[in-house]
Amino acid sequence: xxxxxxxxxxxxxxxxxxxxxxxxxxxxxxxxxxxxxxxxxxxxxxxxxxxxxxxxxxxxxxxxxxxxxxxxxxxxxxxxxxxxxxxxxxxxxxxxxxxxxxxxxxxxxxxxxxxxxxxxxxxxxxxxxxxxxxxxxxxxxxxxxxxxxxxxxxxxxxxxxxxxxxxxxxxxxxxxxxxxxxxxxxxxxxxxxxxxxxxxxxxxxxxxxxxxxxxxxxxxxxxxxxxxxxxxx
Length: 233
What we know:
By secondary structure, the protein is an alpha/beta fold. The protein folds into two domains: 5-99 and 164-232, Rossmann fold; 105-157, no CATH class. Helix content is 54%, strand content 14%. The protein is built from eleven helices and six strands. The protein has helices at residues 16-29, 45-60, 71-82, 105-120, 122-130, 135-148, 152-161, 167-170, 190-199, 210-215, 218-232, and strands spanning 5-9, 33-35, 64-69, 87-93, 177-182, 203-208. The protein has a six-stranded parallel sheet with strand order 2-1-3-4-5-6, sandwiched between helices. The radius of gyration is 16 Å and the shape is globular.
């Protein structure tokens, strides 16, 4: 019998390296393997990930434990809504909005970053974007943005403009869901995580902080996995 596996997706402008640093340890402690795929480049970000999830689900001939961070969490929930009966649960960190993005801080930030990259070029945009931010976040952005390369601005726009599942759609997901929120994150407000949890029939929220995340990447993954374990009871 194959070992349980969780397929986890990164957020906007991020990468699988960050996903592994957040989730590999907490999942392993629960006996679950991690599959963290490299993000598709450019405008293929969303459709590429959703197609990838389809392929993994077909290959495993069964149901998936699925999740992600920020935009990755949106896509995981979107796939689960579209594929009832094929998802065993969701591990969601830092959902950024429900339904249309409108003026959600994460959407506005992604659009501003895309504008900056297109106007100034990648390296100058990076220098401007990391000025004054926490060193750990500067390091993550520098690595991930350079890996996205020429496709970065397009991928940021895909994420910024794509609707997340509505709260009404989330009400139909009768599966265990663990949600992690950072209470000091203005880009991914904890209120959004609470709204998702209020809509989902079997969801639990665990809170942490960006300060903890900076010192211990696994703090975010532990929060999501622990919340999912509670929701399974």
